[in-house]
């Protein structure tokens, strides 16, 4: 986190110095403007009339993570703008990427995580946002306004952020399972054979194995990746399944007692089922941010921007945090976020915990290696 903030500050300064496109760069931030001017540009003589806004589409197609937006938001948006939102969900970033690479053209707004934004920008899959249509962009906390994967929020705005750790049933564990060892150590994991899930997500699950082995989540070293693969193959005899969409319900239904989890998913069910809780592994877990972006193939870029801007309204951003139990990068939303979310250290971790967290990064040429290892894990017995 500290690294992100430091890098963000540096990027922020550079962006602020080279152009007038200064977006949420801390105190003294200016209103976002659609037209960056160079320092040498001559002042215009007469104000040019506002270009007419395109018409809104009747429908907007959102491709999102499951259980990741307050359903009422769709109704309120439609009541105000007359745009009906149709939502499809994906289980992980790679499924989203594959869909776009295969030529899916129907989506207006997508929600990739940090490292996937970087990959999508590189592949030309995202359009640049017109900040002139995003009057609420200044609500984004300066800490999140210049992420290293998309400096200056040129392509995306951050939506929600959280951590990856271990969800569990507190009636089964005397002590919180606050170490990756609970998922991988043969003595510990075998005690819950058939009763825990791992995320169906190549980077998260390879990452957890790498972390347990003491390597970086972003390792590109083939020997380390093979060791992670072998560990996951050994673990297969104890897991219930790989699941990234219903694992929290499996936990609540007593199908499982522990789950490799995204923080908010567990808190969301814990609201109804008080036995459930979430622990960040003491070795450090994953910190991530998911982002609102517009694919190059979007049917209506303008409608997508109007929707993204709506999601950055403080009350709307807070409604989504309150629904999904994830932290918001929207500083203005804080006053509308429930105190039990804001004050929960497993949702808004204190600095000493954040320091130990690591971001997933684009591993570039090692991506096919991850894919191969993951395929081998999936194909292995039992
Ligand atoms: C929501 C999943 C959280 C997204 N169900 C993890 N990046």
What does this structure look like?
There is one protein chain. The chain has 382 residues and is α/β, with parallel strands linked by helices. It is 36% helix and 15% strand. It has helices at residues 2-18, 71-81, 93-101, 114-122, 181-184, 186-190, 202-212, 222-235, 247-252, 263-270, 301-311, 314-324, 339-342, 351-354, 367-379; strands at residues 59-65, 84-90, 109-110, 156-169, 196-198, 239-242, 258-262, 276-279, 286-293, 358-359. Helix 7 crosses helix 8 and helix 8 packs parallel to helix 15. The two termini are 38 Å apart. The structure holds pentane-1,5-diamine. Pentane-1,5-diamine binds next to strand 9.
At a glance:
This protein is of the alpha/beta class.
């Amino acid at each position: 986190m500290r690294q992100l903030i430091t890098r963000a500050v540096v990027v922020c300064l550079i962006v602020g110095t080279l152009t007038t496109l200064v977006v949420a760069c801390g105190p003294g931030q200016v209103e976002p403007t659609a037209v960056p001017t160079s320092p040498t540009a001559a002042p215009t003589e007469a104000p040019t009339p506002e270009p007419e806004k395109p018409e809104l589409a009747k429908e907007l197609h959102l491709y999102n993570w499951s259980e990741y937006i307050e359903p009422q938001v769709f109704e309120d948006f439609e009541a105000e703008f007359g745009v009906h939102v149709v939502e499809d969900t994906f289980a992980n970033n790679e499924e989203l990427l594959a869909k776009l690479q295969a030529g899916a053209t129907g989506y207006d707004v997508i929600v990739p995580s940090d490292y996937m934004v970087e990959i999508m920008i590189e592949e030309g899959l995202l359009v640049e946002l017109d900040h002139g249509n995003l009057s609420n962009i200044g609500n984004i906390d300066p800490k999140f306004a210049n992420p290293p994967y998309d400096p200056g929020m040129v392509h995306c705005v951050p939506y929600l952020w959280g951590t990856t750790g271990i969800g569990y049933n507190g009636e089964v564990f005397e002590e919180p399972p606050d170490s990756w060892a609970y998922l991988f150590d043969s003595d510990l994991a075998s005690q819950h054979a058939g009763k825990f899930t791992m995320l169906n997500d190549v980077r998260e699950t390879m990452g957890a194995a790498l972390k347990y082995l003491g390597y970086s989540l972003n390792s590109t070293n083939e020997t380390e990746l093979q060791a992670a693969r072998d560990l996951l193959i050994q673990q297969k005899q104890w897991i219930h399944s790989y699941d990234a969409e219903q694992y929290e319900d499996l936990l609540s239904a007593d199908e499982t007692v522990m789950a490799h989890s995204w923080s908010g998913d567990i808190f969301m069910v814990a609201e109804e089922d008080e036995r459930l809780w979430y622990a960040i592994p003491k070795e450090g877990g994953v910190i991530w941010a998911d982002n609102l972006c517009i694919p190059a193939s979007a049917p209506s870029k303008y409608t997508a921007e109007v929707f993204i801007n709506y999601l950055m309204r403080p009350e709307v951003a807070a409604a989504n945090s309150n629904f999904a139990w994830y932290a918001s990068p929207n500083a203005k939303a804080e006053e509308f976020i429930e105190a039990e979310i804001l004050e929960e250290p497993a949702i808004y971790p204190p600095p000493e915990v954040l320091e130990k967290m690591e971001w997933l990064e684009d591993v570039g040429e090692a991506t096919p290696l991850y894919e191969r290892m993951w395929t081998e894990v999936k194909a292995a017995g039992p």
